[in-house]
């Protein structure tokens, strides 16, 4: 497996890993996790738990385009060093993004998101260069 594929796996674990703070916050707030109606319970969250849930959902939204970008770059480009480097950069940027989300760093979080989007776009465009 290439480094870019490993980055997909790492990012998937990151997307679900941040959910831990959401679940912990829910339990702290209500004393239990409502497995019958988790989405209703999640709507009542606030603070860090709510931000963790939002970061989780945003990460899930970003996973499919990132996976597609990696697969396009892997299938149609011979520039493996660039592909792997961009994939690592995306995961690193998204790690900063998750921290910014949890810390409630609004404008900074948006700026970091934009950098991640540009990195993902570069992965999609990589086949144009080789």
Summarize this structure briefly:
The protein has 130 residues and is mainly alpha-helical. It is built from six helices and no strands. Helices cover 82% and strands 0% of the residues.
Word description of this protein:
The protein is mostly helical and 130 residues long. Helices cover 82% and strands 0% of the residues. It is built from six helices and no strands. It has helices at residues 3-17, 19-30, 38-43, 47-76, 80-102, 106-125. Helix 4 (47-76) runs parallel beside helix 6. The longest helix is centred in the middle third of the chain and has 30 residues, at 47-76. 28% of the residues are buried.
Fill in the keyword field for this structure.
single chain, 130 residues, mainly alpha, elongated
Q: Count of helical segments? A: 6
What is the C-alpha radius of gyration, as a whole number of Å? 17 Å
Strand content: under 5%
Per DSSP E runs of 2 or more residues, the count of β-strands stands at 0
State the share of residues found in helices, binned by percent.
over 70%
Distance between the termini: 20 Å
- Mean pLDDT equals 94
H/E topology pattern? HHHHHH
Main beta sheet, described? none
Computed structural class: mainly alpha
Shape: elongated
Low-pLDDT ranges: none
